[in-house]
Design a protein that fits this description.
It is a single chain. The chain is built from seven helices and eight strands, in the order αβββαβαααββββαα. Strand 3, helix 2 and strand 4 form a beta-alpha-beta unit. Helix content is 43%, strand content 24%. It is elongated. By secondary structure, it is of the alpha/beta class. Helix 2 crosses helix 7.
């Protein structure tokens, strides 16, 4: 093996070992949904990643109450976002025909791609978590390098992976 081949193979090995794809894990959920989930309200402070998850859920046939509409609903019901997590708040949402309340939080890098996220879906009927996930973006090489840009996923891919994990959690219940 000549020096050039050695360098090429070394670069391949280093790039393969120095990279990682995105990771997602479902939260262990002890509560089972004794009802179907059709209408999901998005937490008002979720941000752009939550909006992307809402689009994914809508594309998959769920009725999604987006963040601005949830904010208006909370004002109409005289509730703050903090009060939603209490049994009385969930009961008020259920009274409006909402089956679940989804909170999504994420952190993005300077380039706009998400770094990590967590999502939690609470039943408005039982007030318990019925699905949840944590997600971490992949990485490769130095930040901003070609390897890094190749390994890291964008907003829509992250939202799709998070939605897959949440729906898997709902369907297991």
């Amino acid at each position: 093996m000549n020096k050039r081949q050695f360098l090429v193979w070394s670069a391949v090995v280093i790039s393969m070992c120095g990279c990682a794809s995105s990771k997602i894990s479902s939260l262990p959920v002890t509560a089972t949904a004794n009802h179907s989930v059709k209408a999901i309200a998005m937490a008002p402070s979720g941000g752009i990643l939550a909006d992307a998850v809402a689009v994914e859920l809508s594309n998959r046939g769920y009725e999604v109450i987006d963040s601005p509409s949830t904010t208006k609903l909370l004002v109409r019901l005289n509730m703050s976002e903090m009060e939603v997590s209490k049994p009385e708040g969930m009961a008020k949402l259920q009274g409006q025909g909402i089956d679940a309340y989804l909170s999504v939080r994420g952190v993005a890098a300077n380039d706009g791609r998400p770094i990590n996220a967590s999502a939690r879906l609470n039943s408005t009927h039982t007030w318990k978590v019925i699905a949840g996930a944590t997600w971490q973006n992949g990485w490769g090489g130095m930040a901003g390098s070609i390897a890094d840009r190749t390994m890291r996923k964008g907003l829509s891919e992250a939202a799709s992976e998070i939605t897959d994990a949440l729906l898997k959690g709902i369907q297991q219940n």
